[in-house]
Amino acid sequence: MRREDGQRVLDVAAGAGNAAIPAAETGASVVATDFAPEMFDAGRRRAAERGVTLEWVEADAEVLPFDDDEFDVVVSCIGAMFAPRHQRAADELIRVCRPGGIIGMINWTAAGFVGQMFATMVPYAPPPPPNAQPPLLWGTKEHVRELFGDRVTELVARRQTITLDQFATLAEFLQYLKAHFGPTIASYRFNADDTERTAALDRDLLEFATRWDEGGDSGVLFRAEYLLLTACKSTGI
User: Fold this and answer.
1) For residue 100, is it left (φ>0), alpha (ψ between -120 and 50) or beta?
2) What global pTM score does this model have?
3) Which of 205, 179, 182 minimizes the C-alpha distance to 123?
4) Which of the residues 5, 46, 175, 188 has the least number of beta carbons within 10 Å of its own beta carbon?
5) How far is CA 70 from the centre of its chain?
């Protein structure tokens, strides 16, 4: 998706700006939002290193602090899918996008590597908030179509994979999850007073990673499936 100079782009649940910073490099005017603003410091450093400037705003994906029709492009990459109330998040993505503008998302699929890792952690995870829906539903075109309805046109969904090969060992991968990956951090925190359950979670995650590792003697390699979604906001709303 090519963005022209001067376009206004919103990245919802942007984290450290993995999508927002490349968007700014195209010449777009970019706003990056996240519910957890502690990620912004790393994003600001990366943006400075790459010579771009963007606006960082603390915001809930279900209640975005922007006007209707404010942005030409609205994206969320592995972000808005974790908002507990899917319809509210979908409504906000559409509301802040101008008629004829582009909405783009990347969401993990249930059958892929990350989706199956979530399934491994379910017995250890804290209870979800009331009325929360499973985030991996966003990894199906049918669910997104139901959420967006006739408010979008040209909804296109493609299953693609990303290669994760930055870990030398499975133990290093596990330590990364425990230090940096929110759902894993929450699961270990929830079981912190039970050494048997934390040890069992260690074991289950390592067994899961062993099954999915395709690296062989060359190191650790995982292939993670995601759904790439693009749509246009209908001009009649």
Assistant:
1) left
2) 0.91
3) 205
4) 5
5) 22
Pairing of the two strands 97-108 and 222-233: antiparallel
- Residues 55 and 127: their CA atoms lie apart, in Å, by 34
- The Cα 182–Cα 161 span in angstroms is 21
3-state secondary structure 101-169: EEEEEEEECCCCHHHHHHHHHHHHCCCCCCCCCCHHHHHCHHHHHHHHHHHEEEEEEEEEEEEECCCCC
DSSP 8-class letter at 192: T
Q: Where are the domains of the chain?
A: 8-160+226-233, 170-218
What is the C-alpha to C-alpha distance for residues 114 and 136, in angstroms, rounded to an integer?
Answer: 9
Q: Which amino acid is at 114?
A: V
Give domain 8-160+226-233's CATH superfamily: Vaccinia Virus protein VP39 (3.40.50.150)
Closest to 219 measured CA to CA, from 180, 170, 175: 170
Rounded distance, CA 114 to CA 224, Å? 6
77-114 pLDDT tens trace: 999 999 999 999 999 999 999 999 999 999 999 999 99
Q: DSSP assignment, residue 59?
A: -
| Torsional class of 188: left (φ above 0), alpha (ψ -120 to 50), beta (otherwise) | alpha
Average pLDDT taken over every residue of the chain: 95
- DSSP state at residue 29: E
Question: What distance, in Å, lies between the first and last C-alpha atoms of the chain?
Answer: 23
When pLDDT is averaged across residues 165-173 and rounded to a whole number, the result is: 95
